[in-house]
Known about the structure:
There is one protein chain. With 460 residues, the protein is mainly α. The protein folds into two domains: 184 residues, Growth Hormone, Chain: A; 189 residues, MFS general substrate transporter like domains (Growth Hormone, Chain: A), CATH 1.20.1250. The chain contains 17 helices and no strands. Helix 2 packs parallel to helix 6, helix 6 runs antiparallel to helix 7 and helix 11 packs antiparallel against helix 12. The longest helix is centred in the N-terminal third of the chain and has 35 residues. The protein starts with a helix and ends in a 12-residue tail after the last helix. The relative contact order is 0.14.
Amino acid sequence: MDNLARDDRAVSVLARDMDNTDIGSLIDGRPLSAFQIRLLVLVGCLVLMDGFDVQVIGFVAPALLRSWNLPPDALGPIFGAGLLGMLVGSTGLGTLADRIGRRPVLISATFFVALCVLLTAATRSVPQMLALRFLTGVGLGGVLGNAVTLASEYCPSARRASLLMIISCGFTAGAILGGLLAAVLIPRTGWQSVFIAGGLLPLVVGSLLVRELPESLHLLLIRGADRARIDYWLQRVAPGFTLPDARTPLAAKAAAKASVIDLFRGGLWKRSLLLWGVSFANLLNLFFLSNWLPLLATRMGYSDSLGVLLGTTLQAGGIVGALTLGRCIDRFGFYKVLAPSFLLGAVMIAAVGQPALPVAIECVVVLLAGVAILGGQPGINALATSVYPTQLRATGVGWCLGIGRAGSIVGPMAAAQLIAHHSTNGILFIFAAIPAAISSLLIAGMAKTHPRRTPTLLPL
C-alpha cells in the first residue's frame, strides 16, 4: 500500500512538472497566437449561448402564462427546475471532464442543450416544461465551468484573469440578445420561436466546436495521451515547437481518479470550503438582485420603466466590473481586488433600499453594486481555475459553480419569504448586504490560508 501511495505521489509530481515547465512556460513566453484567439472567441460564443438559454425562460414567461392560462406562481417551479439542473450538471460534468477530457464534454453538452431547447418549443404542459428545463439546465451546467477551465489553460498567466473575465461578459451579451429577440419574435410568431432560436444557436456553436475546439494540452500530458495527438494541438499553439521525448503513460492515473473527494485532500480542503462559501453567497446576491430589483424599485415609488432601467444598470455594472476588475486582478492578485470589491458591494446593496435617494444617486449605487457583485462573479470563476491542479481543475470549477447554483435558488426564494412577511425595502436590502460582506471575509480568509505544499497542488 505504501508503494502504491509513493507511485501516485510520483505520478502527480511528474504531471505537475510537465504542466508547469513545458506547456505553462510555452504559453506564458509567447504572445497570443491566432489559434488561442480563436479558442477564446469560441469559448465566448459558448458563454453567450449559456447566457441566452439560461435567461430565455424569463423572456417568454409572460407570453407563456397567457398562452397556457397559468397563475404567476406556476413559474416558480419552472425557474427552479432549470437552476436545479444546472447544479447537477456543474458538479457531475465537471468531474467527467477531468476524467475523459474537456473537449468531448463541451461538445456533447452543447448539442444536448440544442436538442432540449428545440424540444421545449413543442411542449404543451407544465410537467413537460419542467422536465425539459431541468435537462436543459444539466447541459448548461456542463458548459460554463468546463469552458472557463479550458480557456484558462490556454491563457498566459499574466493576462489570465482579464481574458477570462472579458469572455464572461458573453453571458450578459447572451441575455441581452435573448431579450431583443424575444421582443421581436414573440409578437410576430409566438413564444415558441424564441426557443427555436435558442436551440439553433448551440447547434451552430456546436458545429464550430467539432471543427476547432482543442483538448487541454495540460490534461493530455497528464493522461499520457498519444504523442501524435499532443503534437497536433501543440503545433496549433506554437508551430515548430517540440516537447522532450520523455513522457510516461503512468501520468494518466492522476486524472483517472479525479473526484470531488480529491478537492479535500492535503491543504485543498480549506480553500475548497472557502471558495464554495464565496460562490454560494455571491450567486445568492446576484440572482436576488437580477430577479427582484425591478419589482422592488416599484415598491420604492419608481415607475415601471425606471425599475427596468435600474435592472439594466445593474447588468451594465456587471460588464464594467468584469472588464475593470480583471485588469486589476492581473496586476494586484485575486485577494487584494475581490475582498474590497465585495465589501463595496455590501455597502452599495444596503444603500439601494434607503428611502428618498435621488434617481441619479440610486442609479450610481445600483451601477456600483453591479460592478462588485455581477462583475465579481467571473473573478470567482477565474480564481477557482487557479486554485486546483490540472487533473482536478474542471471538477473544482464545476463544484464551485454547482454550490453557487444552490445560492442562486436560495436568494430569490428567501427574498420572496421576506416580502411575504412584509419586510420593508430597507430591511430587505440590508439583509441582502450580509452575504456580500461574508464574501469579502471569506476571500480575506483564503488570502491567509496557505496550504502546505503537496504534490497534487499547483503553485498559484
